[in-house]
Structure formats: C-alpha cells, structure tokens
C-alpha cells in the first residue's frame, strides 16, 4: 500500500470491485487505485446475502439498458475475468422473471413497462390468463389479469462469484485491495483530500468513490456530505416442497422463473429447493449490524401467498433462512451514481435498493468513465445522478420489488 492514490474506493463488494476493474481495464487510465474493505470475509455484505438475480423488466428505459449491459457482461464474465488459468463461472440460470398482475393498476404498470422494454429491445412478452396457464400449469391464475414474462436476458447467478471475479481481476490489473476501514475523510474546501484508516494510516486521495453499500450515509458524512441511504432488512427463506412444480413448465425446458406474485411475494428455484422473500409489512431502517432474520414473515406473509398461488406450494418446509440489507434509497429506491455537484472529486455509487448485483457492471463502468473522461462515453446515467437528491426530484421506477 502506498501513501497516495489517484482513486480510493470505500467498499470492496460488487460495486467497489466493479469500479476498480473498469478503471484498471481501461488503457486511458494510468493512475493508481486503492480499494478499502472493512470486512474481508464479506459475510455481511449485501452482495453475499442477496438473491443474485437480474431482470430487464423495469418501467424506466435507463434501468432496462443497465440490466441489458449487465446480462451481456455476465454472459462474457469468464473470459473477461480470467486470471491465469482461473476462468470464473457464474453458473447463470436463464429462468426469466414472471410478473403477475392482480389489479387494474398492476395491469396498467405491466402494459406501460412492456412498451418501454420493447422499445429497448428487451425480450419480454405479455400473457393473458390462458397463455399463462398453458406455460405454467401449476399456477392458480383465476385472479390474474395479466402476466409479463422474460423469455431471455433474465435469471440468477453466483453472487459471491461476480464480486470475487471483479476483485481478483482488478488486483491482477494493478489495483491494491486491503482489509481496513475508512474512519475519516479529509476535506479542504470543495475537495476531499485524504482518507484515514482504522489502522492509523492516512492516504492521500485524488478521488474518493463511495461504494459502501448500506453504510453509504456514514461514509458521506465523513466528508461533510449526505445521501438518503439507510439499511433495510430483507429476510430470504429456502424451502423444500413435498411435490415440486419444477419441471412442469411448457416453456424454457420446463424450468420455472422467478415469480413475483401480486402480493409482492417472490419465489424462484434454488437447486432442488426454492428461494423466497417478501417486502416486510413494517419496513423501518435497522441498525447496520442487525442481521437477525424475521422468521415470522414466512408464516405470516409468504406461505399463505404461495399456497394460494400453487398447490405445489401447499406442503413446504423451510430448510434455511438469512437476513441481508438493502442499501435503501429513501428518495426513490433507485441507484445514485455520479459526482457531488460541489465536491467534484467525491463520487457516489450508492442506493441500489436491492439491485446492486445486476446493476454493478453498468455502475462500475459509469463511475470509471466519470473519473477518466469527466463524463459518460457509453450509457448516459445522468438521470440517476446526485443532482436529483439535492433537488428532491425522485427518479420514478414502478417495477420495484
């Protein structure tokens, strides 16, 4: 570790590692990069505890395009991240997403969102009750007004694999990655100048990137700045079925998708089991170290909805559960990527609100372009910049789980 770096990235999970990769992979960048990660095990990182999925079914074009790039990047991940003989495999499952609309409002959102997706070239289709029932015979569709299904470009993958791939490749390309904690950020006027580590080291920094997930607000406050991001707890459950419906579909070689019920409960295959979760009835901010699962959510929210949706989910048994944190953007539940308008060498990559894994490749590329070129060269992500936080101008996205 040196005493000065051109770029210091606070947080080394998927977002921070992606930024480091894209910086060091770009021949136009000749600077030095330091990634500081407080938890070398990544055991409590949002990346490690996520459902690890990607979808193009959003209502806003920028989110669709972000995921389209993410999907292509994940497809090519092994070749892009190869280091020596190590060629990482993310074990991508192309199961697709299935949104179910049970109300007129939900139906309208699916139709409007589909128009946006189609304009972006996303491979999604709308189905009525009969088409839905033929595709997935195990479902009870009596109350469903419309369904939206992703035929390609959507699925789930190895969450820690994508993080490790980015990190290892960035290190191989020259980035320094250390296990330490940023406890202070030096600032002189409208510029940040340094970071102080828990170990006592003071590192001079040309640019600081806030990639600290649910702790984003803590990092911003060290520089005298603010971002409306807080930790929100999400509990995931793995369950076994007495009689699994997996393999019963008449599409996609029998594979079931990640289904989002009108109640908000979601469910997808996980090996021989299923993974499920729901938005809590009460969803307050939690302590940064609170990872106790909300066990009651399965009996109170999830199982009743699943049992109503499919007879295959009537007899199920929980075999595992854990809680992770969303880095929840309280303004609009969407990512914040961009420079601070006054403190220009402080860059945000925060507030992904559960979408960090799928949006990591595009966010990492975007931040690298801001640092190297002073603006975007590929996908213009100005819409999700920090300026909207200052102006209290929400970026509206209707397809939020």
Automatic annotation (TrEMBL):
Q: Name one GO biological process term.
A: mitochondrial respiratory chain complex I assembly
Which GO molecular function annotation, any one, does this entry have? oxidoreductase activity
What Gene3D superfamilies does the annotation carry?
D-Amino Acid Oxidase, subunit A, domain 2, FAD/NAD(P)-binding domain
Q: Which GO terms describe its cellular component?
A: cytoplasm
In this chain the FAD dependent oxidoreductase domain maps to 6-370
Parts of the chain that traverse the membrane:
7-24
Q: Which UniProt keywords apply?
A: Membrane, Oxidoreductase, Transmembrane, Transmembrane helix
SUPFAM superfamilies according to UniProt = FAD/NAD(P)-binding domain (SSF51905)
Alphabetized Pfam families for the sequence: DAO
PANTHER family, sorted: FAD-DEPENDENT OXIDOREDUCTASE DOMAIN-CONTAINING PROTEIN 1, SARCOSINE DEHYDROGENASE-RELATED
* Name of the featured protein: FAD-dependent oxidoreductase
Organism, scientific name: Cypionkella aquatica
